[in-house]
Amino acid sequence: MNKKNKENISRKEALEKMGKYAAMTALGTFIILNPKKAQASSPPDPGDNPFGGG
Amino acid sequence: MSNYQRPSFIKKGRGFSVIYFSQTRKFLITKGVLEEFFQDTFSLEKNDYDHIVENLILKHPEFTDCLIISKSTTRDNNNEDDLSISPAVISSQLLLSNYVVEVRFDMNSLKDIFLSAYEHLNISNSHTTNYYHKVLSIVKNDSMHYLFSGSKIISKSLNKEYYKLQAQFANKLIEYYHNLESNQWLCSFHACAVKKSNKTYLILGDSGAGKSTLTALLCASGYRFVGDDLILMDQEFNIYDNPAALSAKESSWDILSKYYKEMHEINESNRTKGKVKMKYLPIHSIQKNLPDKHKISALFWVDFNPNTKAQLKPLSSFSISSSLIPDTWVNPELNYPELFTNWLIQSKGFRLIYSDFSSLVNVLDEQL
């Protein structure tokens, strides 16, 4: 049985592809970005918390 | 072996790709080998994908937070709240389109903080029978602020993060202003927005870059005000008028007074930002605007530089994406991150450098 899924490449092919990325030393330009975790209006300036910590 | 997450989608921009990881809610913007790497590994079986990504992380541990699904990546905690809070006893009424919204507080300092930008919408108790009535309450205990709609808690935040609750409060008022009972927003921008000749511009920049001052000045020179500080966008990429008044720091009062006679009549707010005094300029009221929604034509990053004449420099799509995402809340539900990315990679943006306002208006009008 050698039923090959056209969508998924085989492990062998994957490892061959991995060879291409084996060095992975120069990744090119990349930036990992976090969008804001919650909607927020302008945060207060430093020291501007009328309610203290919490 | 760890549980490595796959990209939820990869969107190709001009010379770069935006890759989104839904479980860690992170965007990866990349040009070069990584872009190709994630495209190639996108359809691998789990074990192979994990094996390959493990190798990536060994060489580049900076991807740990992005790619490893931590067990603690859970939704907001839903612990029972200690609601030993005082009842809301201070009350104001705001008129927003078809709604009269009664806003209740349990202390005056909360009123100053939450209502300063909405004083112009205050109405007396009489003549409110023809409107829908809503009640929003803001109360606090030792650790948390709570926002209630009627008797239901709709949002809460730690006391030190009360500005997040301000945004939720602003959202509700924007929804009432536009006669929306509630809306699934696509994203919210920390930005101002103005419109002229059917073109709407989002004005962005670091805190203190002069976004609000510039917005006020443009609105005194033929631009229509859309909003200050918080701009909401829906799934069809419309942004909505924000009914809040524009916040003007003391350093801007002199120049704004030359353009707005109202500045002399507006009282200094009880609310300050640190030690900086504030006035709230209700530009929608001054311009007699009716609630409206708009499509963004371009994004401007404001950069005040006293040594340079006014100029607009086009930004690459890569720069726009990497500048906008960290300052934006993107709704993580449904396919919203993908919709947002589709909008983002085709957006036009400029760095707007200026030293004097009048030459800036000329530069902008040429752009129009």
Short description:
The complex is a heterodimer of chains A (54) and B (368). Chain A is α+β, with helices and mostly antiparallel strands. Chain A is built from 1 helix and 1 strand, in the order αβ.
Descriptive report:
The complex is a heterodimer of chains A (54) and B (368). Chain A has 54 residues and is of the alpha+beta class. Chain A has one helix at 11-21; one strand spanning 29-33. The radius of gyration of chain A is 24 Å and the shape is elongated. Residues 1-7 of chain A have low confidence and may be disordered. Chain B has 368 residues and is of the alpha+beta class. Chain B folds into 3 domains: 9-67, no CATH class; 90-177, no CATH class; 187-367, Rossmann fold, CATH 3.40.50. Helix content of chain B is 29%, strand content 30%. In chain B, a hairpin with a 2-residue loop joins strand 10 and strand 11. Chain B is globular. Chains A and B meet through helix 1 and strand 1 of A and strand 3, helix 1, helix 2, helix 5 and strand 16 of B. Strand 1 (29-33) of chain A pairs antiparallel with strand 3 of chain B, so a sheet runs across the interface.
